[in-house]
Specification:
binds uracil; Transferase, Pyrimidine Nucleoside Phosphorylase, Chain A, domain 3; Aldehyde Oxidoreductase, domain 3; binds calcium ion
């Protein structure tokens, strides 16, 4: 077998075998196959696609390139939740404590934000002294004690994906559904939970801009998980506008705390209820969706989920006074409002562009090693469908630089489109995908 023949085969649109894919991935990760040959293969895959077998083989080869994480010492049925990336997506910080408060272990290895999308680890680090690095021992001990642990990767999982993803990023080969599906699923399957819930975002702020491609991505990921004998389901959810009202790290932690106290934005809470209900069902905690929803609602009314966040912060070394008093979270020097020059209803609020404004303010990273400012971001005062009068505040900019705040004000004024006619914000959840098919909402 050699790399040249494998590239030529895919170039000619033929199907690669498990052995060929494994050979390529293994030798690329070892540095034996050079970047230029891997780039050529990626482009051939991009142009000619892979079928379901090839996608599953690629996923398997990437999993085998690194460590896998055995969670069997954690009691109970473990369910992982993964979002394909959004703007202002604070779900994990709310959903995790709600599920843990229902006595279902919520153990999650999260990532950092890149580009216009945020990451849970960055949000948690807005809390003073919060440790996102846990050893395997700590992870297991915390999960068994308080049912929740949120941390970065504890071991070197899927190094092949890391290298291939970096190469795709510079060779215009990111946007292929099979490559995205195998990349995401290799990282999920390397962590041995019993079930996986995927939150596939669709809309202006997501990787997938239209429902058809989001459904295709969800179908492929569910097929990979199922092919790996892991119960896998996917929700397709709306990312035409940011989730909740805040975008930015400390601002989102504050929003999570408010939501856990029953005072958060409706869309964020609703998404947590729907994902949470499925999670409790998959974990065998309840028999019906109705039971799941009442249990979850009770974690909010009794504040048991809020106390769970407190336990999480305390067990991971963070300053719990930040949870009792969110005003202690890092604050920006300047808070500037963006006022509307017209009246009507908000028609659109492009999530990717809002994410980019937050990034420019310093809430995110342009490259893996740039640092972030936890205090800065955007608070949305109006969302799609809201009525606006002239002079109403559309959004607040939290910035540590006046110049950046002024630029953000210009950008945000342009991002909001306001029209005389009412626009319906649309569904929060578009579809649910299992191995048995698609249910449209
Ligand atoms: N996220 C990933 O982890 N991989 C992709 O290919 C795209 C998004
Ligand atoms: Ca938010």
């Amino acid at each position: 077998m050699d790399a040249y023949d494998i590239i030529a085969k895919k170039r000619d649109g033929r199907k690669l075998t498990a052995q060929e894919i494994d050979y390529f991935v293994e030798n690329y990760t070892k540095g034996i196959i050079p970047d230029y040959q891997a780039a050529a293969l990626l482009m051939a895959i991009f142009l000619n696609d892979m079928d379901q077998d090839e996608t599953l083989h690629l996923t398997r080869s990437m999993i085998h390139s690194g460590d896998t994480i055995d969670l069997s010492e954690i009691k109970g049925i473990k369910v992982d939740k993964h979002s394909t990336g959004g703007v202002g997506d604070t779900t994990t910080l709310v959903l995790g404590p709600m599920v843990a408060a229902c006595n279902v272990p919520f153990v999650k290895m999260s990532g950092r934000g890149l580009g216009h999308t945020g990451g849970t680890l960055d949000k948690l680090e807005a809390i003073r002294n919060f440790q996102t690095e846990l050893s395997m021992g700590e992870l297991i001990e915390n999960s068994n004690r308080i049912n929740i642990a949120l941390c970065g990767q504890t071991a070197d999982i899927t190094p092949a994906d890391k290298e291939l993803y970096a190469l795709r990023d510079v060779t215009a080969t990111v946007d292929n559904i099979s490559l995205i599906a195998s990349s995401i699923m290799s990282k999920k399957l390397a962590i041995e939970t019993e079930a996986i819930i995927l939150d596939v975002k669709v809309g202006s702020g997501a990787f997938m801009k239209d429902l058809d491609s989001a459904l295709e991505l969800a179908k492929q990921m569910v097929a990979i998980g199922t092919g790996y004998d892991r119960e896998t389901v996917a929700f397709i959810t709306n990312m035409d506008q940011p989730l909740g009202n805040t975008v930015g790290n400390a601002l989102e932690v504050k929003e999570a705390i408010q939501t856990l106290r029953g005072e958060g934005p409706q869309d964020l809470y609703e998404l947590c209820l729907q994902l949470g209900a499925k999670l409790l069902l998959l974990a065998g905690r309840v028999q019906s969706k109705g039971d799941a929803l009442s249990l979850l609602e009770e974690t909010i009314s009794s504040e048991s989920a809020y106390r769970k966040l407190f336990d999480l912060v305390s067990h991971q070394g963070g300053d719990t006074s930040y949870i009792m008093n969110p005003d202690l979270l890092p604050k920006a020097k300047h808070i500037i409002d963006v006022k509307s020059r017209t009246g009507g209803f908000v028609r659109s609020l492009n999530a990717e562009r809002i994410g980019k404004v937050a990034l420019d303010l310093g809430a995110g990273r342009n490259t893996m090693d740039s640092s972030i400012d936890p205090a800065v971001g955007i608070v949305l005062n109006k969302k799609i469908g809201d009525k606006v009068d002239i002079g109403d505040t559309l959004a607040y900019i939290h910035s540590n630089s006046i110049d950046k705040a002024m630029q953000a004000r210009i950008d945000i004024e342009q991002i909001y489109t306001i029209r005389e006619e009412y626009t319906d914000p649309g569904r929060l959840i578009h579809a649910f995908v299992t191995k048995n098919g698609i249910k449209l909402y």
